[in-house]
Amino acid sequence: MTVTHHPAPATAPRTGLWLIGARGSVATTALAGAAAVAAGLHPPTGMVTETAPFDAAALPPLDSLVLGGHDTASVPLPKRAETLAAAGVLPHGLPTALRAELAAAEERIRPGAGPEDPRGTEELIAGYAADLAAFARAHGLARTVVVNVASTEPAADAGAPLPPSSLYAAAALRADCGYVNFTPSTGLRHPRLADAARTASVPHAGRDGKTGQTLLRSVLAPMFAQRALTVRAWSGSNLLGGGDGAALADPAAAAAKNAGKARVLADTLGAVPEGEVHIDDVPAMGEWKTAWDHVAFDGFLGSRMILQTIWQGCDSALAAPLVLDLARLVARCHERGLAGPVDGLGFFFKDPDSGPADLSAQWMALLELAGRLAADGAPPGGGGGARNDDASPAARDGR
Amino acid sequence: MTVTHHPAPATAPRTGLWLIGARGSVATTALAGAAAVAAGLHPPTGMVTETAPFDAAALPPLDSLVLGGHDTASVPLPKRAETLAAAGVLPHGLPTALRAELAAAEERIRPGAGPEDPRGTEELIAGYAADLAAFARAHGLARTVVVNVASTEPAADAGAPLPPSSLYAAAALRADCGYVNFTPSTGLRHPRLADAARTASVPHAGRDGKTGQTLLRSVLAPMFAQRALTVRAWSGSNLLGGGDGAALADPAAAAAKNAGKARVLADTLGAVPEGEVHIDDVPAMGEWKTAWDHVAFDGFLGSRMILQTIWQGCDSALAAPLVLDLARLVARCHERGLAGPVDGLGFFFKDPDSGPADLSAQWMALLELAGRLAADGAPPGGGGGARNDDASPAARDGR
Amino acid sequence: MTVTHHPAPATAPRTGLWLIGARGSVATTALAGAAAVAAGLHPPTGMVTETAPFDAAALPPLDSLVLGGHDTASVPLPKRAETLAAAGVLPHGLPTALRAELAAAEERIRPGAGPEDPRGTEELIAGYAADLAAFARAHGLARTVVVNVASTEPAADAGAPLPPSSLYAAAALRADCGYVNFTPSTGLRHPRLADAARTASVPHAGRDGKTGQTLLRSVLAPMFAQRALTVRAWSGSNLLGGGDGAALADPAAAAAKNAGKARVLADTLGAVPEGEVHIDDVPAMGEWKTAWDHVAFDGFLGSRMILQTIWQGCDSALAAPLVLDLARLVARCHERGLAGPVDGLGFFFKDPDSGPADLSAQWMALLELAGRLAADGAPPGGGGGARNDDASPAARDGR
Amino acid sequence: MTVTHHPAPATAPRTGLWLIGARGSVATTALAGAAAVAAGLHPPTGMVTETAPFDAAALPPLDSLVLGGHDTASVPLPKRAETLAAAGVLPHGLPTALRAELAAAEERIRPGAGPEDPRGTEELIAGYAADLAAFARAHGLARTVVVNVASTEPAADAGAPLPPSSLYAAAALRADCGYVNFTPSTGLRHPRLADAARTASVPHAGRDGKTGQTLLRSVLAPMFAQRALTVRAWSGSNLLGGGDGAALADPAAAAAKNAGKARVLADTLGAVPEGEVHIDDVPAMGEWKTAWDHVAFDGFLGSRMILQTIWQGCDSALAAPLVLDLARLVARCHERGLAGPVDGLGFFFKDPDSGPADLSAQWMALLELAGRLAADGAPPGGGGGARNDDASPAARDGR
């Protein structure tokens, strides 16, 4: 296990993780979790970069991360953490144990611009970039990765001003920071940012973290394809509360999210089957989510069969470790001089910049990236990257 | 699509497919399905070997297969086919459309030995081998593959006489036939057959076709492992009628089957989680099966999450196309001179002779085998075997 | 069992059952089923009026029913029956066995008015009433019950002309026929028909047959209420193909249907919990329907619990026997001189004219009605109507 | 609402609630919950006797209950409560808030006899009865109800000595205490206690609290029967951790529990359908339980349909309020002079002493009992007991 549970030596470079939506559920969970895992209070369950295949990738240690961010919300981090503990997302007692860390991070949050802000596009980008530069200076950071975990915004109209997610993305590039869009919002995918994204001198990745229903689809759809079973209809319903439920009750926001969900089926099945996906705001669900999928498929001689799945998870707890994974990977890419869209990160996204939609193919691509990131350029695990060998997650320490 | 829908030219070699349990549901469905697909009455849904990656593998055409077999049951094939049509497994009208083929196949079935048969082990093996030789002679077969699809027998006691499945397996080797064990029964895995299996001059493969719950597990378990999510308990219940339900109501037979189911979890998760698997005989289910799985797993910071799956399928319709796939692949291995346990067929089995337990890794291994089988030794699809390229099932004709 | 399996004696009065939507799935299944059960080809599974509590209610025998109806569709009944058999709704072979009955019924179907029909409201009502009178004359019917089983129409605008369902309803009253609205369409519930409905000289009942998800809700919601468990959210998704799926894909039609679904929760829980209901048109489902319900409820000390239900059924097969039940009950009400909305039929409807929403209370009310209908006015079962006595369905013949 | 949230007046009689298994999950939850609800910290969710129909039944107020009990376990109540709070059964903070109450109750627990206890049957009964008498004296109790909530014991052999549950039951009768058996253990159902149970001068009730899967079955099975739908197979799987999971992993204990589960189907369907029930010990589930049910049923013309239910609950949180309900009801029965098995409590039990198996019929019987218990003998709600009137739970205060 690469977590050392000790402060990084004074000479170790420090890496910034700047969260857009820094007082939200995902950011709070990421922050509390990074501190808790670094302190040895909890095992790194759910963190892909803490498994054996990444041992040699020279990723920044968890305890070298410094977290800050922008937010338009005003509930302070320590209070937000208490709310998450009451909802069962964070362990009881953790907000108290991490009181100092939460308060320190709260000090590092800068206000985002609300809808009434009089500043124009250029002013806003410049202001955000200045915030990022100040953050790096104040904490002596070797580099910073900006990760968007803010509420999903409605699908952008190409003619309108840049949406907030795109302003933050542009600021990241301007401030020479890596960038990750963990939401379905536009971010770097705006037509007016296409050139900047392609020619960026920093690495970036997106879009829309793959945490539940689509994660499942990315292993089930290839199974149907490989077995030559014809999927006739794939229908889904998602029930979720929290801020995400309310945000996605906006049909425009849901449309952005559903586009990502459909892509995995189109790419792996060769065609989009019948069926819709619903996202319902159910405040009584709190931070928990239930996703039901119903797959009607044909077998031999037209026999009709059905697979149903029910996924009951906590989105913040699923997303937070992946946010940490992505920040570490993109920071290391930056350190190794990679720039532009990073190949090999589709494993984390519903709607990746490139690459296959099949989770296992994405996993292989991620392992290749880990190999490229290794200090000596050797494949991960120090050997041939053989999948059922020491590159397997099952082989990681402590399993 | 390699199916020609025309009789093979007179000069084409014919391949025998000899089914142990030739009057059972799987065998009847395989026989009716092979005829229906070869005649162009139905698309080859569920047949892996009819997808694009196998186009160049030079497998025996479906209409070059001649089916026969052993059985101890006496209900003739045409009547069994009618029963399956009434149960919704075969399309209505198909038994009538294939009356001639079913009657011809019925003529090629030889009686298996019942429990009261006075013959000893050696006599039985010799008798079965003679049946195989006669079958080849009568139909001018280039080669024959024996596939066991008989009801699961109780786990064998090493000290006892060879169980029936092992007698048939030994006969296959003696008659120089390829052999596939599609059931959890002992077959070639008997200690007294270990040497013969290892040094066989013919290819063989097993054990226990992966058609439903375990197929799902072989894609879901790697997902949990790759995402570093800790599976705490994996519990399952299977409800099935038909002959299989009754056979598996015998705890000894269920034990054989459950061993295979557990293996996929152990191999992919690194440890067997808590949880049991039940197999219930529910005659009201007829030929249909429902499998419920409940996976309790931990996410970040110990958050508790649950995945449930419900699979409703028809085992015969799932198994039959795979039986045809295996027969074609093993026959081609035989033709190419491969002998002993065939690498690359784990994709089809719960308890494969070798190789990974993860379905996507098994798929890659199967594609490699397809490449080795190609007439010119080139990789499948005529190119680099790139997974998201023309080797993808989504790229196959007609999708 | 009251079914005699013999033609009614020549002197027995004949009862007409006039179906609006007579060539649809429900009507075709009702017609084929009535003939099949009357002929002894199938047991009366799903027919409430064939259970013991109705033995003494003097309902018209199944074989005394004469079926006819209106439809705007042109696919003839025998062909429609073949389609339903291919879809697994009707048993294979039944359309052939009932060829004569289907052809005869087809002759008794009259065209309904399409949207382009130039006739005005009064003309249409008069025309439909004339069709009903001609039907009664031609077959010597003692009385006729009109049952609406046509596709759901969009919710009516009070200012607009009467919608088709209301025209047929008005025609039924004018022709002195009993009337049942088995759909969520307006029917007699139009404000301009309120007086006519209240003062009708014939019995009528509605609205929206309760066949699946709402049936379940009408027993589950009372359970939560009686156990003092607080339902926080009740969410549902329905996947259905057939004509019904397409009709309900129209949001206006879905709104009519969902109003009925919500009512059962409001009435039994005392408040409508959070949660939406989706109805998806999934043509691949054919005549089959899947309904998933997710109920989040609180237990003692605020503990969070969840109940999920998955109902997989065939709407036509669920609706058809209830249509026959209602026709027989309303015909007998007519014979006994009951007029206006019939108390005691809420058991069959999502949105009944009156009475409780709890299925068991509706069942008690239905048993009371059966008692009132008995020839001698005595309660059903010849005794005190005690629920766990001989009035129990479990006590009916042959169970 | 009858809860006053104030201490009972000094002159109010106090009622004892003596729990067999007083340090277990159910008992601890009941104790903490009674205190929390009486103090106004939580609403009485899940307590049937706190709904409107019981307003006039003159039940002992919650804050007049004094809890004590026997247990062979040694983990003290305050520590057990902490464990339950960590598992999410009790709200965080509640054990601290109720520290004084928990400590006081811990003082009132007496040791039960372990398997090595040298005392004979008569000595044990006398000792337990003496404990009950001392409890009543010490706290000035008007009367006491003994409730068995101990782990399920293996099915008793009629020839063997009385099992522990029967010893405690006999002691209750001897000490003139009401008795409730909330478990599937033998209790008063032992042949050698049959005479004592029948001629008891105190009221008693049992057996096996109905909290989850069987509760559902008791509303679903009547639905199938009333709709004349033929249930062909009813299969179930239960996954549970905690002490109950381990106890029920013993096949003999499971047999006792499953007998109760089967009874509700036999009584309401008229016959026991195919299908098994499994109870799996899954320690990872902690205090939570998942029950999956699969019901295969036939509709009209033999169409095959399926209902599945998934119940995810916490048994302690479901059982505890019912334990308080039963204690209050049986205490009031005792006060009113009722003796022997109490009619009208089948609502609470899987395997009731008498009465119907259908939940709604049981609810009607319970309402009748509530009427008999009212101070003036009038029906509940002060009126005709009309079900959809003011006797409805939906009409209770505050809902």
From TrEMBL, chains A, B, C, D:
Molecular function terms in GO for this entry?
A: inositol-3-phosphate synthase activity
What processes in GO biological process is this protein linked to? inositol biosynthetic process; phospholipid biosynthetic process
Hey, what's the signal peptide range on this chain?
none
- Domain Myo-inositol-1-phosphate synthase GAPDH-like, by residue range, is 212-316
User: Where is the segment annotated Disordered?
Assistant: 377-399
Checking InterPro entries in the record gives: Myo-inos-1-P_Synthase, Myo-inos-1-P_Synthase_GAPDH, NAD(P)-bd_dom_sf
Which protein family is it in? Belongs to the myo-inositol 1-phosphate synthase family.
Q: What is this protein called?
A: Myo-inositol-1-phosphate synthase GAPDH-like domain-containing protein
Source species, please?
Answer: Streptomyces cacaoi
